[in-house]
Write the structure tokens for this entry.
Amino acid sequence: MKARTKRILLIVLAALVLTTALVLGLLVYLAGHPKYGGSVLCAQNLYALTPCMASYQREHDGNAPPSIGAFREYCISAGGQLMAQCFVCPNDETGEGSYEMAISGKIDPSGPRLVLIRERVARHGGQRRVMNTDGSIVSEGG
């Protein structure tokens, strides 16, 4: 390989390493930032609740639980532990349950997208995270 080709490859490799380091640094900063990190973890909590909700619905003829507490038993980790952290937003200073059911009754998977679970209070710059009946996690308000 020619010396010039080696230099070009080294420059490209260095640029990739630098870009990766910058992106990872930004992600670490955002994860630790009280405003943005909590928002990311809040969305992750709702994603973690998605399979729990699906299990509940399978066993209850497609019905949504009447309350968040009604499907806690479906939120068990592979180690057999309750995933209690999924029920509290990291930005919730009260430490109580952060989420509530938005609808009840039978859910039609082919019907319109509706809000299924939402945060009780807007904690993310005037917005709150919601889980829709199609499993998507979005922000509302603000």
